[in-house]
Write a sequence for this structure.
């Protein structure tokens, strides 16, 4: 999935996505992840030899439900197998992460991934890869090489992916993103295709499942009546959760990170599941996350509304403007640009601060002509004003992420909550002082939440 992580605990229907695969011989017509006999049609899964209880734990600063499986390991999302050292178990849901790291800060330096093939003795779980395994691996990594990633076979590296083969009908990864130290992929070449290898590599690169993105309910329905597998196990808790992260672009029904079952489009129709190639959305996601610090070039911009390019985000005009009033928080509105408007009212300086978050400064001037570089700020009542910038104020830090409409408009999410974004509030027309201030609103598929950045 193409998302940015955010610490959040959600209840049923609003949590963190982790979709558990079922046994290899289950029937896909029942909505289970099965081996259909055609490796290209199998969704990635880990088939545990033993299953324990469902637990709540933090991983990469996100709270997930996980399933205890073989020998004290934890299964996340159906195909991510974590060790106890990788997670922080929650007791009474009161414990919090020890670090501020997030999955999309865990990126491979210089997009270079080191790997080696397992060469040790065979275990009950895995063994040294065969030639067929290596052929599929090479085809899977080629998809990512075409997007600028470099894969280096070098067993001397300490930060490395170890490749293991199994015959249990499993395809699983040990990490989402760069973890440092040894990571691994275990893969059954008799049950899965090269595209499934690309899927598992996608996890190590930092992508989560597309069906787990925080805005998924705008695009898909979960088939809640189809959660009991043939063995009587209930997987509802997995589908009830979503990642606390923003999605890059619109929901991608062609993503190599999307699973095929227990879901439909919002209109009830199915989609074509594929593992043939990376989608345009997959490519956009890695381009964004691996370039998030420079995705928006530092500069001065107009923020223009999708579908109404003459409507801009600007500082409310008041004849009584003074230095004091500009400092104390002037409303931010959306209005039609006219020749009478002063450019300093609708010009914003955008620059990166840290970890993909940007500050957006107004270059408005007071009545004496002095520029006051105050920052776009979300207030406790969800309104937008400008106020003096403080680097540790999360209400002044913004993700600027490709939106749903096209490749040139963006959604602006406050760091404090990726379920919200800047939205125009329709108000009175006429004098600018009569317009309602813009507000932060729940993410939706509307033109008033999509903004172009025009120099």
């Amino acid at each position: 999935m193409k998302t940015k992580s955010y610490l959040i605990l959600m209840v049923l229907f609003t949590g963190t996505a982790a979709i558990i695969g079922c046994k290899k011989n289950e029937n896909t017509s029942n909505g289970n992840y099965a081996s259909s006999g055609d490796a290209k049609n199998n969704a990635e899964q880990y088939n545990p030899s033993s299953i324990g209880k469902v637990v709540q734990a933090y991983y990469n600063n996100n709270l997930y439900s996980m399933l205890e499986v073989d020998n004290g390991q934890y299964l996340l999302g159906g195909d991510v197998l974590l060790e106890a050292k990788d997670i922080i178990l929650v007791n009474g849901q009161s414990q919090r992460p020890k670090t501020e790291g997030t999955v999309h800060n865990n990126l491979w330096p210089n997009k270079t991934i080191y790997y080696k093939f397992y060469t040790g003795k065979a275990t009950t779980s895995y063994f040294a890869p065969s030639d067929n395994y290596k052929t599929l691996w090479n085809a899977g990594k080629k998809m990512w090489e075409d997007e600028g990633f470099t894969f280096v076979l070098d067993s001397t590296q300490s930060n490395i992916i170890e490749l293991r083969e199994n015959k249990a009908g499993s395809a699983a990864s040990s990490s989402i993103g760069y973890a440092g130290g040894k990571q691994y992929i275990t893969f059954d070449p008799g049950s899965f295709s090269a595209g499934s290898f690309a899927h598992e590599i996608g996890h190590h690169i930092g992508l989560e499942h597309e069906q787990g993105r925080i805005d998924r309910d705008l695009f898909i329905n979960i088939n809640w009546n189809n959660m009991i597998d043939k063995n009587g196990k209930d997987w509802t808790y997995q589908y009830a959760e979503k990642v606390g992260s923003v999605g890059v672009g619109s929901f991608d029904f062609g993503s190599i990170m999307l699973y095929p079952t227990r879901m439909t489009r919002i209109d009830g129709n199915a989609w074509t599941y594929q593992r043939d190639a990376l989608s345009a959305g997959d490519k956009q996601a890695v381009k964004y996350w691996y370039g998030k610090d420079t995705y928006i070039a530092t500069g001065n911009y107009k923020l223009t509304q999708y579908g109404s390019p003459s409507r801009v985000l600007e500082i409310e005009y008041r004849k009584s403007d003074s230095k004091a009033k500009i400092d104390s928080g002037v409303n931010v509105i959306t209005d039609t640009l006219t020749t009478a408007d002063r450019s300093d009212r609708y010009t914003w300086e955008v620059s990166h601060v840290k970890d993909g978050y940007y500050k957006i400064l107004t270059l408005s001037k007071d009545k004496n002509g002095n520029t006051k570089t105050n920052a776009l700020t979300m207030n406790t009542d969800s309104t937008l004003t400008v106020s003096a910038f403080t680097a540790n104020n999360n209400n002044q830090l913004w993700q600027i992420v490709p939106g749903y409409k096209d490749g040139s408009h963006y959604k602006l999410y406050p760091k404090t909550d990726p379920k919200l974004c800047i939205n125009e509030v329709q108000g009175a027309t006429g004098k600018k002082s009569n317009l309602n201030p813009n507000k932060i609103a729940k993410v939706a598929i509307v033109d008033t939440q999509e903004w172009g950045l025009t120099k």
Q: What stands out?
A: Confidence is low (pLDDT under 50) at residues 3-37, 92-103, 321-328, 427-434. The helical segments are 131-145, 194-205, 236-239, 280-289, 323-329, 343-346. Residues 429 and 435 are 6 Å apart (CA to CA). The chain has two domains: 3-289, 299-454.
